């Protein structure tokens, strides 16, 4: 029997197939820094103020259970930029630069005729130059800061408190560099760095509307210190937020730098983050409005996502750098009017899947090594042939990796590495540990049931080892005779050059 749903899905697939005979669409990729998937109105969060992204979501396929492959900026970004999991991309730590030799999305799109450009954060960790990683026009962090800092600005009006400058994370108390007082950056809206990035992207769209373009926009928000303009200083009342509960099982693993935060501090930090997300939304709105004004919406594939999520007090943490759900789940919105269906996908997907999807939809060749699968079938109103039964992520700065299924979360850590990113605990090298959570019964991930469910631990450790063996460049060098957990320790060591 032909149902309405199957009829609509067939029509969508037919329309998508017809459009592939035309010129491939333009491409706009917007990525935020530290935007957690749960701080979005369209995700059901009534406190979040994200009208532009919510509107985009209504016009898009929204992937509601989309996860990063590393909960830290540089590894995550370079992973989906290359289509390879971080350990294969060669970037598993924050300061590591991506090798210029690596195949990338931008190189692939440039090769098929796209004019490629990037404005904003990319974490390449090297000065930019034309042609870098496939970008004809790269204006990354250093370029943005130099150009933006030369622009005139209006000083704050007398009596307006603003955030202290410069920002000094780990040098000033955590309540200061996490903006617990919810102080605005000392600029008005049009003078903000995020606004500048959005305006540069909008100008590129105007100048290149007659060409085929692929544009990356890397917003600096809502990364700490959660910057927002002076006009937004009264947007959120900290008293309307509640700091997540912290259980006794969290005690030893709470980073030392967060131990002195008061409940009022935590509420202020959360309010500052939500205000910064609101500002991020307005910056995304500048780019989306320019597409609309230039009549480019119908012929432009738009993707919005974030490099990873963020913890706002869950388990006592105000950061990512861990395997808990708030740090791993991220937004993913995909829009191409008339060719991508509107709706929500509940199946689990990974960041590396974006790479395959983008190249598939834009009609470009696959990259030589790709660890994800195309999500195009979801965009057409169907399902992929093999929906993911788990997601994999890794944080090798702390020699740990994570497997999440529909029901369970496994965290494996060697416990041997003295982490170097500033989030030390009072037991920095506790030795190997494994945690298992039942996400159905314990969505907050408080009760470790690894001792009670050894068979599930064994199954998920085997699944983790299988993913690593299939994708790791040094798999052939795995020593013989190792136990599963010894083999996992072999793979979770960072090897960045």
Write a brief caption for the model.
This protein has 497 residues and is of the alpha/beta class. Helix content is 30%, strand content 16%. It contains 14 helices and 13 strands.
Helix content: 25-40%
- Top-tier CATH class of the largest domain: Alpha Beta
Known CATH architecture of the largest domain: 3-Layer(aba) Sandwich
Computed Rg: 22 Å
Q: Beta-strand percentage?
A: 15-25%
Q: Report the mean per-residue pLDDT as an integer.
A: 95
Remind me, CATH topology of the largest domain?
Alkaline Phosphatase, subunit A
End-to-end distance: 58 Å
Overview of the structural elements:
α2 crosses α9 (263-293). 30% of the residues lie in helices and 16% in strands. It has 14 helices and 13 strands. The protein has helices spanning 4-19, 51-58, 73-82, 86-89, 105-111, 141-149, 174-177, 193-207, 263-293, 325-328, 351-362, 376-379, 454-471, 484-491, and strands at 26-33, 61-67, 115-120, 137-139, 213-222, 300-306, 329-330, 332-335, 343-350, 390-395, 400-405, 408-413, 433-438. It folds into two domains: 4-389, Alkaline Phosphatase, subunit A (3-Layer(aba) Sandwich); 391-491, 2-Layer Sandwich (Arylsulfatase, C-terminal domain), CATH 3.30.1120.10.
What secondary-structure arrangement, pairings included, does this model have?
Blueprint: H1 4-19, E1 26-33, H2 51-58, E2 61-67, H3 73-82, H4 86-89, H5 105-111, E3 115-120, E4 137-139, H6 141-149, H7 174-177, H8 193-207, E5 213-222, H9 263-293, E6 300-306, H10 325-328, E7 329-330, E8 332-335, E9 343-350, H11 351-362, H12 376-379, E10 390-395, E11 400-405, E12 408-413, E13 433-438, H13 454-471, H14 484-491
Parallel strand pairs: 1-5, 1-6, 2-9, 3-4, 3-5
Antiparallel strand pairs: 2-7, 2-8, 6-8, 10-11, 11-12, 12-13
């Amino acid at each position: 029997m032909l149902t309405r749903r199957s009829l609509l899905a067939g029509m969508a697939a037919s329309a998508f197939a017809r459009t592939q005979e035309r010129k491939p669409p333009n491409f706009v990729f917007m990525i935020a820094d530290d935007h957690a998937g749960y701080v979005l109105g369209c995700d059901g969060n009534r406190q979040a103020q994200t009208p532009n992204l919510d509107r985009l979501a209504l016009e898009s396929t929204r992937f509601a259970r989309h996860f990063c492959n590393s909960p830290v900026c540089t590894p995550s970004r370079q992973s989906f930029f290359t289509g390879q999991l971080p350990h294969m991309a060669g970037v598993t730590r924050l300061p590591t630069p991506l090798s210029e030799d690596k195949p990338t999305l931008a190189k692939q799109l440039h090769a098929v005729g796209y004019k490629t450009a990037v404005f904003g954060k990319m974490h390449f960790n090297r000065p930019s130059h034309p042609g870098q990683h496939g970008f004809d026009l790269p204006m990354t962090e250093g370029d943005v800061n130099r150009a933006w800092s030369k622009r005139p600005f209006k000083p704050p009006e007398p009596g307006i408190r603003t955030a202290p400058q410069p920002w000094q994370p780990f040098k000033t108390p955590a309540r200061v560099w996490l903006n617990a007082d919810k102080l605005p950056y000392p600029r008005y809206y049009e003078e903000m760095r995020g606004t500048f990035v959005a305006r540069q992207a909008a100008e590129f769209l105007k100048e290149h509307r007659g060409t085929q373009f692929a544009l990356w926009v890397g917003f600096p928000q809502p990364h700490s210190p959660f910057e927002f303009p002076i006009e937004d200083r009264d947007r959120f009342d900290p008293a309307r937020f509640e700091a997540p509960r912290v259980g006794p099982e969290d005690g030893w693993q709470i980073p030392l730098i967060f131990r002195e935060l008061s409940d009022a501090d935590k509420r202020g930090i959360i309010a500052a983050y939500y205000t910064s997300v609101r500002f991020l939304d307005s910056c995304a709105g500048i780019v989306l409005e320019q597409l609309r004004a230039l009549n480019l919406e119908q012929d432009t594939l738009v993707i919005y996502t974030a490099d990873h999520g963020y913890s706002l007090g869950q388990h006592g943490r105000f950061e990512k750098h861990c395997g808990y759900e708030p740090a791993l789940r991220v937004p993913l919105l995909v829009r191409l009017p008339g060719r991508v269906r509107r709706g929500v996908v509940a199946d689990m997907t990974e960041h590396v899947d974006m790479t395959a999807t983008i190249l598939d939809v834009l009609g470009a060749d696959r990259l030589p090594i790709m660890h994800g699968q195309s999500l195009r079938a979801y965009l057409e109103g169907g399902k992929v042939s093999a929906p993911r039964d788990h997601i994999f992520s890794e944080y090798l700065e702390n020699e740990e990796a994570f497997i999440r299924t529909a029901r369970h979360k496994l965290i494996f850590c060697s416990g041997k590495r003295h982490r170097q990113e500033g989030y030390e605990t009072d037991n920095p090298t506790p030795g190997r540990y494994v945690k298992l959570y039942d996400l159905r019964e314990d969505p907050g991930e408080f009760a470790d049931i690894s001792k009670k469910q050894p068979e599930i631990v064994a199954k998920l450790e085997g699944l983790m080892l299988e993913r690593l063996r299939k994708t790791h460049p040094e798999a052939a060098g795995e020593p013989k005779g190792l136990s599963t957990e010894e083999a996992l320790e072999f793979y979770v060591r960072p090897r960045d050059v």
